[in-house]
């Protein structure tokens, strides 16, 4: 199968392109020209394609014979940057896809869910409703919701097979999620909600699942969450990362109730002094605090059953690989 991988210069996209080539697919890896100019090589079976999804160009003609697309491309930063790099980019991609395309595998995010919907210490899975009020969340959630809707509508109109994958926090070499730290204060690492589970998925496990989604049998559009079976607490993950050589400070636990109290105090101050219009950082914003630190469980049953996915990198191995060591 000839597969287009967008965002192939990124952390996940590069791993997906390599995994797809290992699986025997012919891979067209779309990379922004500026990223391609910085160097870096792709394995055999992967052909780089210079292109920026934010604007139409020669890349549109180059993808005319692909059988499937894995859409990893998304932007970070402020809202205008994410609207351009996530929403506009997706609109341009969908407009350029060939009518003969067989399947789309779209990389969404767990961030699209309403984290207030499950019970306290309950389960968040594919049955959880999507965020009902995106404006109370950050730009990433807002644009990922828009992006997913665009892809679903296009797949329905064009009768294209669709798999939407929603990974958790993707970690791996060079991306350690601050070793589970909520806030650094000098020599100290404040570990918020130390007993809450981290919804981690190793980048290699995530890439394997996405490649499996290219060939999974479908009777209807499929949505799966991607989270590794081992979901360590923030406290345990910090300890494991420290043992692996990740630079860390002295761990100080901050209970979840204290995190919420801090957030509601900031919310009250905003109402009293700024008529509720102050834009609070994640640390002090109750809705986003609950997304980051609320105690929940994250099953991966559907991904295992529908994709035949068995994560091959366990937690101990994944954390040990966070720091690249010279031989």
Structural summary, described in words:
This protein is α/β, with parallel strands linked by helices. The chain has 11 helices and 12 strands. The protein has helices at residues 11-22, 33-37, 59-62, 79-96, 139-158, 203-215, 234-244, 256-274, 286-293, 301-307, 315-320, and strands at 2-6, 26-31, 46-50, 68-71, 103-107, 161-167, 169-171, 183-185, 188-192, 200-202, 222-226, 250-254. The strands form 3 sheets. A 7-stranded parallel sheet has the order 3-2-1-4-5-6-11, sandwiched between helices. It has a 3-stranded mixed sheet with strand order 8-9-12. Strand 4 (68-71), helix 4 and strand 5 (103-107) form a beta-alpha-beta unit. Helix 8 (256-274) packs antiparallel against helix 9 (286-293). It is globular. It starts with a strand and ends in a 7-residue tail after the last helix. The mean pLDDT is 93.
Topology at a glance:
Blueprint: E1 2-6, H1 11-22, E2 26-31, H2 33-37, E3 46-50, H3 59-62, E4 68-71, H4 79-96, E5 103-107, H5 139-158, E6 161-167, E7 169-171, E8 183-185, E9 188-192, E10 200-202, H6 203-215, E11 222-226, H7 234-244, E12 250-254, H8 256-274, H9 286-293, H10 301-307, H11 315-320
Helix pairs in contact: 1-6, 4-5, 8-9
How are helices and strands ordered from N to C?
A: EHEHEHEHEHEEEEEHEHEHHHH
Please indicate the percent range of residues in DSSP E strands (runs of 2 or more).
15-25%
**Mean pLDDT over the residues:** 93
Assembly state here?
single chain
**Helix coverage percent:** 25-40%
Strand order of the largest sheet: 3-2-1-4-5-6-11
Biggest beta sheet attributes: 7 strands, parallel
Computed structural class: alpha/beta
- Number of separate strands: 12
Radius of gyration: 20 Å
Query: What general outline do the C-alpha atoms trace?
Result: globular
Low-confidence stretches: none
Kindly, what is the distance between the CA atoms of the first and last residues, rounded to a whole number of angstroms? 37 Å
The number of helical segments is 11
């Amino acid at each position: 199968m000839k597969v287009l991988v967008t965002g192939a210069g990124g952390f996940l996209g590069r791993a997906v392109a390599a995994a797809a080539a290992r699986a025997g697919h012919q891979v067209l890896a779309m990379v922004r020209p500026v990223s391609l100019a910085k160097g870096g090589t792709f394995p055999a079976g992967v052909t780089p394609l210079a292109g920026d999804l934010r604007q139409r160009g020669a890349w549109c003609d180059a993808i005319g014979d692909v059988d499937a697309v894995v859409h990893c491309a998304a932007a970070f930063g402020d809202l205008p940057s994410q609207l351009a790099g996530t929403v506009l980019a997706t609109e341009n991609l969908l407009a350029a896809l060939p009518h003969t395309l067989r399947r789309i595998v779209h990389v969404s995010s767990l961030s699209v869910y309403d984290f207030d919907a499950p019970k306290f210490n309950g389960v968040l899975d594919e049955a959880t409703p999507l965020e009902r009020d995106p404006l109370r969340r950050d730009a990433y959630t807002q644009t990922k919701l828009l992006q997913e809707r665009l892809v679903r509508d296009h797949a329905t109109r064009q009768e294209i097979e669709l798999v939407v994958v929603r990974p958790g926090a993707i970690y791996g070499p060079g991306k350690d999620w601050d070793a589970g730290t909520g806030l650094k204060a000098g020599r100290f690492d404040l570990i918020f909600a130390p007993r809450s589970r981290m919804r981690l998925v190793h980048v290699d496990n995530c890439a394997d699942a996405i490649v499996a989604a290219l060939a999974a049998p479908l009777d209807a559009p499929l949505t799966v969450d991607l989270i590794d079976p081992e979901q360590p607490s923030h406290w345990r993950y910090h300890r494991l990362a420290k043992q692996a050589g990740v630079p860390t400070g002295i761990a100080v636990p901050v209970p979840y109730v204290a995190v919420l109290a801090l957030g509601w105090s900031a919310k009250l101050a905003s109402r009293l002094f700024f008529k509720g219009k102050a834009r609070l950082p994640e640390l002090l914003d109750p809705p986003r605090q609950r997304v980051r630190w609320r105690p929940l469980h994250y099953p991966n049953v559907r991904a295992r059953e529908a994709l035949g996915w068995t994560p091959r990198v366990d937690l101990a191995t994944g954390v040990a690989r966070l720091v690249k060591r010279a031989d």
